[in-house]
Amino acid sequence: MGADRFLVIGGDAAGMSAAAQTRRLRGASDLAITVLEQGPDVSYSACGIPYWVGDVVSDRDRLIARTPHEFAAQDIDVRTGTRAEAIDLDAGTVRTVDGQTLGYDHLLVATGGRPLRPPVPGLDADGVHGVHRLADGADIRAAVAAGARRAVVLGGGYIGLEMADVLHARGLAVTVVLADPLPMALLDADMGERVCKAIGDMGIDVQPDQPVREIETDADGVVRAVRTDAGSYPCDLVVLGLGMGPEVSLARDAGLRLGETGAIEVDRTMRSRSHPEVFAAGDCVQTFHRLTGEPAHVALGTHANKQGRVVGSVVGGRAARFAGVLGTALTAVGELEIGRTGLCTTQAEAAGYDVRAETIEGTTRAGYFPGAAEIAVKLVSDRGSGELLGAQVVGGPGSGKRIDVLATAIWAGLTAEEFAGSDLSYAPPFAPVHDPVLVAARVASRAERG
Amino acid sequence: MGADRFLVIGGDAAGMSAAAQTRRLRGASDLAITVLEQGPDVSYSACGIPYWVGDVVSDRDRLIARTPHEFAAQDIDVRTGTRAEAIDLDAGTVRTVDGQTLGYDHLLVATGGRPLRPPVPGLDADGVHGVHRLADGADIRAAVAAGARRAVVLGGGYIGLEMADVLHARGLAVTVVLADPLPMALLDADMGERVCKAIGDMGIDVQPDQPVREIETDADGVVRAVRTDAGSYPCDLVVLGLGMGPEVSLARDAGLRLGETGAIEVDRTMRSRSHPEVFAAGDCVQTFHRLTGEPAHVALGTHANKQGRVVGSVVGGRAARFAGVLGTALTAVGELEIGRTGLCTTQAEAAGYDVRAETIEGTTRAGYFPGAAEIAVKLVSDRGSGELLGAQVVGGPGSGKRIDVLATAIWAGLTAEEFAGSDLSYAPPFAPVHDPVLVAARVASRAERG
């Protein structure tokens, strides 16, 4: 009898975390681990691509956390350039496009995400790029190096804003075209307006409320402009910043059930709900919101890593489960830092809460300390119980990471009043004597009473 | 009949927070508010004094949050330069040194703290300074301006280290003389060693394990050196950085009971335990540790503000109580950031926990992102329950404020494992995909199992 076989489809955050964690718990004589990755790289940072494009990080290889060679040293057999074509759940095999058939005892589907694409003509034109694989980053870098002067970014989520920021910093004229009225759709309108104004002030053109209708191309099929109902925006580069959907074609074809978000339905141990003998993790799965229990799809490396680790623990024989998401997100555009967590007002209302929302303004450091920057903090809470439901921060340097304090308070189920009493640090270079997050909590807890 | 009378002794954080909060709840026709302050200023930032000395903040008045004039506009009668000499609890009056006798219906004792002084000869020499009143800052600034070249800082708490840092930055040769083996006594030894090495590398001389024996002076009574058993450290400036004790002479003489910390015993509504008709708040009171319930004395503006606010609410007719302290503290020395919260290992052991402590090293940003700095995170937890008890961080820019995330997790009573699953933000300019605080929690939660 040979060793038990663990086969992983997809070699980025979820897949490689699972492989590494399993190996920590089970040696090579006990378990063979094979990873199939269609691309040339594993364990790369898709989130780092904007910074590579922006030349903030100049070396592509810095975005790669670990190479197949490094995994090989742990007896993890990583096969790059190897695309899985079909899963046969009955036979317990995976067929690759190059004709191999691999058997498995444990299977993980970690096929990741794919950039969302608006259903418009011209999207396959030369000059239209997603922000997903390192090859996308290389293509955009090449376009900039070749003299691209005008870029249109479709979508104002964090990837879209980061790309707008770095392309603007590299000297391109940048227009962000939004289907929504404001960027960062998971911010409340008052906070989104702060973002919109700030990026406009930086010289980035924002065109809201304009679903894209067509990518216009020249005779050679090269992008020439982006057309909306309101106008046509000339450009030589289009970046898709509309977010990521789950890549589920392999799973769907194999018969794994998809949830209402379109991603693979899994339980908290990351087992497929329709086929518990198969694991799935990362950007291809449907997860759940910590507060509401509702299904959610959030494509983010941090969740993928944790979910992969859960799979690795379970395959390794140790109990583990994924604890859900709050939808915490953080980004920077120039010096502006934007963070959010939990439910925004509309989400909280939809979930049936009696919503109280308050925004306060403060400074990141003692007001007299050099570098004190403006910060706005918004808290969403339940009027009846006082429970904190969501938080948003927009401000200068030092603002963004404060979202983690609020995410922790929400994760722990604190009320605004309980959190308002908490013993957060105070020192003039780091905070005013009343940290803005506590001021926000105090205002929210006072609001509850009155 | 006149209005009800609220008399406040001491016009800094606790006193003025109480006065302002009371006024928000009760108008001037209903309640007269009088504040007696012995010094020239109210509502000033003692924590800002090091940065004024360091010329990081050049204008003294920037350290003053609000002036007596501004309070007067709210019908709060602030009498600076007015020292209370005695409280007559039976008569319900306070006598001032200039011979006034003021009656009250509600009394708040907010006499603050005083710099701790070692019991050695020479401490009253010319050139020895506390870091307490703005006048102290002015004196030290004047000494530097007059050409002081060598400074000895007694004590390595945060005020001591901040003063060492700013004096060093202003070109003085600085020696920190410690009675303890390491600076920052409320850090575990391994973390204290990181601090000690880093400040030594900056060129600040640290002399541990040397209780001071004498301040040597010249014939004119001017400081000349600090002598310990190991040597004599020549200097023309001595700074007391030994921490703050409670200023309780007025309260003690009036018969208010002091606790084992030497500070005024109060309940959670900030009423004196021996005389519940009297409130006390701020650096002069004994508070309690959130985790252990044990008495604690922590002189810090953030607590003083919150406690003063509790008093103001109660006098204003609204229920309120102080929720305790974790001992959260944060400081910077050069680019080094140092934070702590909750119980350190020795405190946790003394409190009867079965202590597990683990330190991890990581980076503040994605490893490939410019400005990624080293950070060490230590977590103290209870081996049996997994409950988080304490946390310490030492590292480069971006490290320090992470202590707030840990303070919130501890405040909420999370276990290491519960916290390890939490949805903290990830973006390359702000954090690695595994934030170091989560890596620490994961290691701690794994340790619990093994």
Automatic annotation (TrEMBL), chains A, B:
Give a yes or no for keyword Flavoprotein in this entry. Answer: yes
What family does this belong to? Answer: Belongs to the class-III pyridine nucleotide-disulfide oxidoreductase family.
Q: What is this protein called?
A: NADPH-dependent 2,4-dienoyl-CoA reductase, sulfur reductase
Classification of source organism: Bacteria, Bacillati, Actinomycetota, Actinomycetes, Geodermatophilales
A GO MF term:
oxidoreductase activity
Gene3D superfamilies with a match to the protein in the record: FAD/NAD(P)-binding domain
Residues forming the FAD/NAD(P)-binding domain are 6-298
**Domain Pyridine nucleotide-disulphide oxidoreductase dimerisation positions:** 331-431
Cofactor names:
FAD
UniProt entry keywords in alphabetical sequence: FAD, Flavoprotein, Oxidoreductase, Redox-active center
| Keyword Oxidoreductase in annotation | yes
